[in-house]
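FAQ: What does a ligand-bound record look like?

Like this one, built around D-serine:
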Amino acid sequence: MNSKLLNGNIWDTDPELFDIIKKEKARQASGLEMIASENFTSIPVLQCLSSCLHNKYSEGMPNQRYYGGNEFIDEIEIMAQKRSLEAYRLKEDEWGVNVQPYSGSPANFAVYTGVVEPHGRIMGLDLPDGGHLTHGFFTATKKISATSIFFESMPYKVDPKTGLIDYDKLAETARLFKPKLIIAGISCYSRCLDYKRFREIANENGAILMGDMAHISGLVAAGVIPSPFEYCDIVTTTTHKTLRGPRAGIIFFRKGLKTVNAKGEKIMYDFENKINQSVFPGLQGGPHNHAIAAIATAMKQATLPEFVEYQKQVIKNAQRLCEGLKSFGYDIATGGTDVHIVLVDMRNAGLSGARAERILELCSIACNKNTVPGDKSALNPSGIRLGTPALTTRGLKETDIDNVVKYIDRALKLAQEITKISGPKLADFNKIIETDDAIQKKINALKDEIENFSRTFPLPGYDNY
Ligand code: DSN
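The answer part, i.e. the structure of the complex:
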């Protein structure tokens, strides 16, 4: 195994692949990354991810493994657990944590598998209203997410007029549906959740309350928005969004004394074994030890004052983005944001989410089309979701966001111009983009301007890849 071809650097052994990686790096550096769930992680996280830890199998929990040679892996996993609790200011006798889930979707599935019986009932925010696939998404014709195939799910919704979660309706539906578990979590909702209200509704129905803080876990760690830990029994998260860690998932669960009943008997939480066994051996095999180490280092960063400043800036930038877009006449769902997400309703601008996403992509601004309150179909959504975590990581401040707003507006105006020529069909819109020289020139000129602007902000990570 000494062959240079088997063990040399990737730039020597596989230049074909390395070239593509370099192109992606250049794309990241020259574009404005506004996908709300993305971020640029730190060098220590990248270093853990590409370390020797990747080589090791370690099924089981620390000090109870099915493989030998796990002395240091145990040390790292225990460190990741400890630091995860510290980052959220949780006491070790009240909360436990499993850091092994491969990502957020497996984490959510592991919770339901562990604490809800097969075909037991769950309630989550409907996907078109801002919930996640794994909150039980299904449509009239199809059970889309496995969480709606193996569990019976009932969505709750936002008020189509205000865009805000309709807690009264959720309470009413929960009284009828009697869920075993209610999910307080979002994938696209720009307001803080009312965890106290969720708790009251869960209590009224004897339901477990699970917070899915995947999007907001960095903001929660920094203490700049309300925390789900005050009211939830279980909290899941990914670690790569606002938290800026590796692509991975975590499950926090309450443990210890739950309550004392009328007879004076102590009732204890029983989540720990159920959740740990559901993750392994229930659903997963070997933990990704390189990712677990990266969680440990990300959680250490999450306790630093610089991290708090970063998260404050993420919100300031998102709020400036809202105000800027509103000043150009765009409608913002719920009228604003409390977090890192800005949901822009394109209907009054005469554009669909798909057209807006496409033109922005051509101008090197990455975002995603998204349903907005009142949309009937998730297939042809009327809005775009923008986010500020990645731009803030690159050092953009409010005045830079003002420039970003102008770029977005210019791109969207181009989309309106193309729509005037193409008419309502998306295929015709795309055809004009591909064939009309004058339009292409305008797009490319704007793209060049945006890329020059973007390159002035450093991109964390390795220099060329
Ligand atoms: N795909 C993530 C998002 O974009 O919100 C959620 O998993």
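Follow-up question: can I read anything off the structure? Yes, for example: The chain has two domains: 52-301, 312-454.
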